Amino acid sequence: MNNYKITTLNDFIILKQKDFPYAKGELSSLLSHIGTAAKMVNKKINKAGLVDIIGSSGEVNVQGENQQKLDVYADEMFIGSLLSSGECCGVATEENENEIVFSDSFASKGKYIVCIDPLDGSSNIDFNVSVGTIFSIYRRLTQRGEKVNNEDFLQKGSQQVAAGYIIYGSSTMLVYSTGYGVNGFTLDPSIGEFCLSHPDIKTPEDGSIYSVNEGNYVHFPEGIKKYIKYCQELDKESSRPYTSRYVGSLVSDFHRNLLKGGIFLYPENRTAPKGKLRLVYECNPIAFIALQAGGEASDGNCSLLEITPQSLHQRSPFYVGSKNMVRKLQEFLHLNR
Ligand code: AHG
Ligand code: MN
Ligand code: MN
Questions:
Q1: Residue 87 contacts by C-beta under 8 Å, 6 or more apart in sequence?
Q2: Is residue 212 pLDDT above 60, yes or no?
Protein backbone atom coordinates (compact mmCIF):
# COMPACT_ATOMS: atom_id res chain seq x y z
CA MET A 1 0.00 0.00 0.00
CA ASN A 2 1.45 3.33 -0.97
CA ASN A 3 1.96 5.31 2.27
CA TYR A 4 3.07 8.45 0.42
CA LYS A 5 0.69 11.01 1.99
CA ILE A 6 0.45 14.00 -0.33
CA THR A 7 -0.13 17.40 1.28
CA THR A 8 -0.27 19.99 -1.46
CA LEU A 9 0.66 23.64 -0.85
CA ASN A 10 -3.02 24.62 -0.99
CA ASP A 11 -4.00 21.81 1.44
CA PHE A 12 -1.30 23.05 3.83
CA ILE A 13 -2.24 26.73 3.51
CA ILE A 14 -5.89 25.93 4.29
CA LEU A 15 -4.86 23.60 7.13
CA LYS A 16 -2.63 26.29 8.69
CA GLN A 17 -5.27 28.97 8.20
CA LYS A 18 -7.13 27.22 11.04
CA ASP A 19 -4.27 28.41 13.36
CA PHE A 20 -5.53 31.96 12.78
CA PRO A 21 -9.05 32.16 14.30
CA TYR A 22 -9.82 35.49 12.61
CA ALA A 23 -8.35 34.55 9.24
CA LYS A 24 -10.70 35.09 6.33
CA GLY A 25 -8.50 33.33 3.79
CA GLU A 26 -6.96 36.50 2.32
CA LEU A 27 -3.35 35.53 3.05
CA SER A 28 -4.12 31.96 1.99
CA SER A 29 -5.37 33.18 -1.36
CA LEU A 30 -2.35 35.44 -1.83
CA LEU A 31 0.09 32.61 -1.09
CA SER A 32 -1.78 30.33 -3.44
CA HIS A 33 -1.53 32.89 -6.26
CA ILE A 34 2.23 33.15 -5.66
CA GLY A 35 2.41 29.37 -6.02
CA THR A 36 0.58 29.58 -9.35
CA ALA A 37 2.93 32.23 -10.75
CA ALA A 38 5.89 30.12 -9.56
CA LYS A 39 4.63 27.16 -11.62
CA MET A 40 4.34 29.37 -14.71
CA VAL A 41 7.85 30.79 -14.30
CA ASN A 42 9.17 27.30 -13.61
CA LYS A 43 7.72 26.06 -16.89
CA LYS A 44 9.49 28.85 -18.82
CA ILE A 45 12.80 28.29 -17.02
CA ASN A 46 12.68 24.58 -17.78
CA LYS A 47 12.38 25.43 -21.48
CA ALA A 48 15.12 28.13 -21.39
CA GLY A 49 17.51 27.27 -24.17
CA LEU A 50 14.77 25.72 -26.30
CA VAL A 51 12.54 28.76 -26.63
CA ASP A 52 13.62 32.34 -27.13
CA ILE A 53 13.61 33.24 -23.42
CA ILE A 54 17.28 33.26 -22.50
CA GLY A 55 19.65 36.15 -22.95
CA SER A 56 19.31 39.83 -22.37
CA SER A 57 16.13 41.78 -23.02
CA GLY A 58 18.34 44.58 -24.32
CA GLU A 59 16.97 46.79 -21.56
CA VAL A 60 18.75 48.10 -18.46
CA ASN A 61 16.70 48.03 -15.24
CA VAL A 62 16.49 50.61 -12.48
CA GLN A 63 19.53 48.96 -10.89
CA GLY A 64 21.57 49.79 -13.99
CA GLU A 65 21.83 46.05 -14.60
CA ASN A 66 21.25 44.26 -17.88
CA GLN A 67 17.72 42.91 -17.72
CA GLN A 68 17.40 39.28 -18.82
CA LYS A 69 14.30 38.21 -20.77
CA LEU A 70 13.38 35.90 -17.91
CA ASP A 71 13.64 38.82 -15.45
CA VAL A 72 10.92 40.57 -17.46
CA TYR A 73 8.79 37.44 -17.88
CA ALA A 74 8.95 36.53 -14.18
CA ASP A 75 8.19 40.15 -13.22
CA GLU A 76 5.07 40.17 -15.41
CA MET A 77 3.90 36.75 -14.20
CA PHE A 78 4.13 37.59 -10.49
CA ILE A 79 2.61 41.07 -10.88
CA GLY A 80 -0.28 39.64 -12.92
CA SER A 81 -0.91 36.86 -10.41
CA LEU A 82 -0.79 39.22 -7.42
CA LEU A 83 -3.21 41.61 -9.15
CA SER A 84 -5.68 38.81 -9.92
CA SER A 85 -5.59 37.60 -6.30
CA GLY A 86 -7.50 40.70 -5.21
CA GLU A 87 -5.70 40.46 -1.85
CA CYS A 88 -2.75 42.67 -2.81
CA CYS A 89 -3.08 46.43 -3.40
CA GLY A 90 0.44 47.05 -4.67
CA VAL A 91 3.80 45.45 -5.49
CA ALA A 92 7.41 46.64 -5.32
CA THR A 93 9.74 44.66 -7.55
CA GLU A 94 13.43 44.76 -8.40
CA GLU A 95 12.54 45.44 -12.04
CA ASN A 96 10.44 48.58 -11.44
CA GLU A 97 11.74 51.92 -10.17
CA ASN A 98 8.58 52.72 -8.22
CA GLU A 99 5.96 50.61 -6.50
CA ILE A 100 3.14 49.41 -8.74
CA VAL A 101 -0.23 50.53 -7.35
CA PHE A 102 -3.26 48.36 -8.20
CA SER A 103 -6.01 50.92 -8.74
CA ASP A 104 -8.88 48.71 -9.88
CA SER A 105 -11.83 48.71 -7.45
CA PHE A 106 -11.23 45.04 -6.52
CA ALA A 107 -7.47 44.98 -5.89
CA SER A 108 -7.26 48.49 -4.36
CA LYS A 109 -9.11 47.05 -1.34
CA GLY A 110 -6.43 44.38 -0.90
CA LYS A 111 -5.11 44.03 2.65
CA TYR A 112 -1.50 43.26 1.73
CA ILE A 113 1.45 44.64 -0.20
CA VAL A 114 4.18 42.44 -1.68
CA CYS A 115 7.89 43.14 -2.33
CA ILE A 116 9.49 40.76 -4.78
CA ASP A 117 12.69 39.85 -6.57
CA PRO A 118 11.01 38.06 -9.47
CA LEU A 119 14.16 36.36 -10.65
CA ASP A 120 17.18 36.10 -8.38
CA GLY A 121 20.54 35.05 -9.78
CA SER A 122 19.53 35.98 -13.31
CA SER A 123 23.14 36.31 -14.49
CA ASN A 124 23.22 32.50 -14.17
CA ILE A 125 20.23 31.71 -16.39
CA ASP A 126 22.09 31.21 -19.67
CA PHE A 127 24.46 28.73 -18.00
CA ASN A 128 21.84 26.47 -16.43
CA VAL A 129 22.69 27.38 -12.85
CA SER A 130 19.84 27.46 -10.30
CA VAL A 131 17.92 30.71 -9.96
CA GLY A 132 15.04 31.77 -7.70
CA THR A 133 12.25 34.16 -6.77
CA ILE A 134 12.12 35.93 -3.39
CA PHE A 135 8.92 37.44 -1.91
CA SER A 136 7.94 39.41 1.18
CA ILE A 137 4.37 40.18 2.35
CA TYR A 138 3.26 43.02 4.66
CA ARG A 139 -0.10 44.30 5.85
CA ARG A 140 -0.67 47.70 4.23
CA LEU A 141 -0.42 50.74 6.58
CA THR A 142 -2.82 52.87 4.52
CA GLN A 143 -6.58 52.25 4.86
CA ARG A 144 -8.15 49.74 2.45
CA GLY A 145 -9.56 51.56 -0.57
CA GLU A 146 -7.07 54.45 -0.07
CA LYS A 147 -4.21 54.80 -2.56
CA VAL A 148 -1.27 52.73 -1.33
CA ASN A 149 1.91 54.77 -0.95
CA ASN A 150 5.66 54.50 -0.44
CA GLU A 151 5.50 54.07 3.36
CA ASP A 152 3.50 50.85 2.89
CA PHE A 153 6.61 49.39 1.25
CA LEU A 154 9.24 50.77 3.64
CA GLN A 155 8.31 48.81 6.74
CA LYS A 156 10.89 47.07 8.93
CA GLY A 157 11.52 43.42 8.03
CA SER A 158 10.18 42.45 11.48
CA GLN A 159 6.72 43.59 10.26
CA GLN A 160 6.57 40.95 7.54
CA VAL A 161 3.41 38.85 7.69
CA ALA A 162 4.98 36.17 5.49
CA ALA A 163 8.06 35.66 3.33
CA GLY A 164 9.49 32.95 1.14
CA TYR A 165 11.37 31.94 -1.94
CA ILE A 166 11.13 29.57 -4.87
CA ILE A 167 14.30 27.82 -6.04
CA TYR A 168 14.25 26.62 -9.64
CA GLY A 169 16.94 23.98 -9.22
CA SER A 170 17.41 20.24 -9.74
CA SER A 171 13.86 20.24 -8.42
CA THR A 172 11.68 23.30 -7.93
CA MET A 173 10.87 24.11 -4.33
CA LEU A 174 8.77 26.75 -2.61
CA VAL A 175 9.87 27.55 0.97
CA TYR A 176 7.84 29.99 3.09
CA SER A 177 6.91 31.09 6.59
CA THR A 178 3.97 33.03 8.03
CA GLY A 179 5.83 33.51 11.30
CA TYR A 180 5.05 30.04 12.65
CA GLY A 181 8.03 28.04 11.37
CA VAL A 182 9.36 27.29 7.89
CA ASN A 183 7.99 24.66 5.50
CA GLY A 184 9.29 23.49 2.11
CA PHE A 185 7.25 22.18 -0.82
CA THR A 186 8.65 20.38 -3.85
CA LEU A 187 6.91 20.69 -7.22
CA ASP A 188 5.68 17.34 -8.53
CA PRO A 189 5.53 18.08 -12.28
CA SER A 190 3.43 14.95 -12.91
CA ILE A 191 0.51 16.49 -11.00
CA GLY A 192 1.55 20.17 -11.23
CA GLU A 193 1.38 20.59 -7.44
CA PHE A 194 3.83 21.81 -4.81
CA CYS A 195 3.85 18.97 -2.22
CA LEU A 196 5.05 19.23 1.40
CA SER A 197 8.55 17.70 1.38
CA HIS A 198 10.43 19.60 4.11
CA PRO A 199 8.09 20.16 7.11
CA ASP A 200 9.22 22.48 9.93
CA ILE A 201 12.72 23.30 8.63
CA LYS A 202 15.24 24.12 11.39
CA THR A 203 18.71 25.34 10.38
CA PRO A 204 21.70 23.82 12.30
CA GLU A 205 23.15 26.22 14.92
CA ASP A 206 26.60 25.48 13.51
CA GLY A 207 27.77 24.63 10.03
CA SER A 208 30.94 24.13 8.05
CA ILE A 209 30.10 26.04 4.88
CA TYR A 210 30.92 29.69 4.24
CA SER A 211 29.59 31.38 1.10
CA VAL A 212 31.16 34.63 -0.14
CA ASN A 213 32.45 35.99 -3.44
CA GLU A 214 36.15 35.89 -2.57
CA GLY A 215 36.89 37.80 -5.77
CA ASN A 216 36.10 40.91 -3.73
CA TYR A 217 38.37 39.88 -0.82
CA VAL A 218 40.87 42.74 -1.13
CA HIS A 219 38.03 45.27 -0.78
CA PHE A 220 36.33 43.68 2.25
CA PRO A 221 36.30 45.33 5.69
CA GLU A 222 39.12 44.08 7.98
CA GLY A 223 36.74 42.08 10.18
CA ILE A 224 35.44 40.13 7.16
CA LYS A 225 38.96 39.38 5.97
CA LYS A 226 39.89 38.11 9.45
CA TYR A 227 36.71 35.96 9.58
CA ILE A 228 37.47 34.37 6.19
CA LYS A 229 41.01 33.57 7.37
CA TYR A 230 39.45 32.08 10.56
CA CYS A 231 37.23 29.85 8.36
CA GLN A 232 40.34 28.67 6.49
CA GLU A 233 42.48 27.88 9.57
CA LEU A 234 42.89 24.27 10.77
CA ASP A 235 40.97 23.51 13.98
CA LYS A 236 39.68 19.99 14.74
CA GLU A 237 37.06 21.10 17.35
CA SER A 238 35.23 23.49 15.07
CA SER A 239 35.64 21.32 11.95
CA ARG A 240 37.72 24.05 10.28
CA PRO A 241 38.87 24.61 7.66
CA TYR A 242 35.31 25.02 6.50
CA THR A 243 34.18 24.33 2.95
CA SER A 244 33.67 27.28 0.62
CA ARG A 245 30.54 27.05 -1.53
CA TYR A 246 29.33 29.96 -3.70
CA VAL A 247 26.84 29.65 -6.58
CA GLY A 248 26.19 33.34 -7.16
CA SER A 249 22.43 32.99 -6.75
CA LEU A 250 21.39 34.13 -3.26
CA VAL A 251 18.44 31.71 -3.15
CA SER A 252 20.64 28.70 -4.04
CA ASP A 253 23.44 29.62 -1.63
CA PHE A 254 20.97 30.37 1.17
CA HIS A 255 18.80 27.27 0.63
CA ARG A 256 21.79 24.90 0.80
CA ASN A 257 23.08 26.57 3.97
CA LEU A 258 19.59 26.61 5.52
CA LEU A 259 19.34 22.82 5.24
CA LYS A 260 23.00 21.87 5.89
CA GLY A 261 24.15 24.73 8.14
CA GLY A 262 26.44 27.52 6.99
CA ILE A 263 26.85 31.27 6.60
CA PHE A 264 26.29 33.51 3.57
CA LEU A 265 28.15 36.81 3.41
CA TYR A 266 27.73 39.73 1.03
CA PRO A 267 29.86 42.50 2.57
CA GLU A 268 30.19 46.05 1.40
CA ASN A 269 33.14 46.45 -0.96
CA ARG A 270 34.69 49.01 -3.33
CA THR A 271 32.21 48.40 -6.15
CA ALA A 272 29.27 48.09 -3.73
CA PRO A 273 29.93 50.50 -0.83
CA LYS A 274 26.57 49.59 0.79
CA GLY A 275 26.72 45.96 -0.25
CA LYS A 276 25.01 44.62 -3.39
CA LEU A 277 21.87 42.91 -2.07
CA ARG A 278 18.64 44.84 -1.75
CA LEU A 279 17.21 45.16 1.75
CA VAL A 280 13.49 45.19 0.90
CA TYR A 281 13.09 42.25 -1.50
CA GLU A 282 16.23 40.14 -0.97
CA CYS A 283 17.68 40.56 2.54
CA ASN A 284 14.49 41.00 4.60
CA PRO A 285 12.54 38.00 3.27
CA ILE A 286 15.60 35.70 3.46
CA ALA A 287 16.36 36.99 6.97
CA PHE A 288 12.74 36.34 8.03
CA ILE A 289 13.04 32.71 6.89
CA ALA A 290 16.44 32.32 8.56
CA LEU A 291 15.17 33.57 11.95
CA GLN A 292 12.03 31.45 11.71
CA ALA A 293 14.30 28.42 11.17
CA GLY A 294 16.46 29.29 14.22
CA GLY A 295 19.22 31.15 12.36
CA GLU A 296 20.34 34.81 12.44
CA ALA A 297 20.74 37.69 10.00
CA SER A 298 22.64 40.95 10.33
CA ASP A 299 23.99 43.88 8.34
CA GLY A 300 27.10 43.73 10.52
CA ASN A 301 25.76 46.33 12.96
CA CYS A 302 22.29 45.13 14.01
CA SER A 303 19.62 42.54 13.41
CA LEU A 304 18.65 43.04 9.80
CA LEU A 305 14.90 42.92 10.47
CA GLU A 306 15.17 46.03 12.69
CA ILE A 307 16.40 48.31 9.88
CA THR A 308 13.81 50.84 8.65
CA PRO A 309 14.25 51.05 4.85
CA GLN A 310 14.65 54.57 3.43
CA SER A 311 14.11 53.61 -0.22
CA LEU A 312 12.77 50.63 -2.21
CA HIS A 313 16.07 49.61 -3.81
CA GLN A 314 18.29 50.37 -0.82
CA ARG A 315 21.25 48.00 -0.57
CA SER A 316 22.68 46.48 2.61
CA PRO A 317 25.64 44.38 3.69
CA PHE A 318 24.12 40.95 4.42
CA TYR A 319 25.25 38.13 6.74
CA VAL A 320 22.80 35.27 7.25
CA GLY A 321 22.74 31.63 8.34
CA SER A 322 23.59 29.40 11.30
CA LYS A 323 23.22 31.30 14.56
CA ASN A 324 26.67 30.56 16.01
CA MET A 325 28.43 31.33 12.71
CA VAL A 326 26.72 34.73 12.34
CA ARG A 327 27.54 35.52 15.98
CA LYS A 328 31.22 34.53 15.46
CA LEU A 329 31.37 36.81 12.41
CA GLN A 330 29.93 39.67 14.44
CA GLU A 331 32.71 39.17 17.03
CA PHE A 332 35.28 39.66 14.26
CA LEU A 333 33.47 42.75 12.95
CA HIS A 334 33.23 44.20 16.48
CA LEU A 335 36.92 43.59 17.21
CA ASN A 336 38.03 45.16 13.93
CA ARG A 337 35.89 48.29 13.71
P1 AHG B 1 19.64 39.37 -9.04
O2 AHG B 1 19.88 38.37 -10.12
O3 AHG B 1 18.23 39.39 -8.54
O4 AHG B 1 20.16 40.74 -9.41
O5 AHG B 1 20.47 38.91 -7.76
C6 AHG B 1 21.80 38.55 -7.91
C7 AHG B 1 22.47 38.63 -6.58
C8 AHG B 1 22.29 37.40 -5.71
O9 AHG B 1 21.44 36.45 -6.26
C10 AHG B 1 23.68 36.83 -5.56
O11 AHG B 1 23.91 36.38 -4.25
C12 AHG B 1 24.57 38.00 -5.90
O13 AHG B 1 23.85 38.79 -6.83
C14 AHG B 1 25.86 37.55 -6.52
O15 AHG B 1 26.62 38.72 -6.71
P16 AHG B 1 28.14 38.58 -7.24
O17 AHG B 1 28.04 38.03 -8.61
O18 AHG B 1 28.65 39.99 -7.16
O19 AHG B 1 28.85 37.67 -6.28
MN1 MN C 1 18.33 38.96 -6.50
MN1 MN D 1 16.49 39.71 -9.62
A1: 26, 27, 29, 30, 33, 110, 111, 112
A2: yes
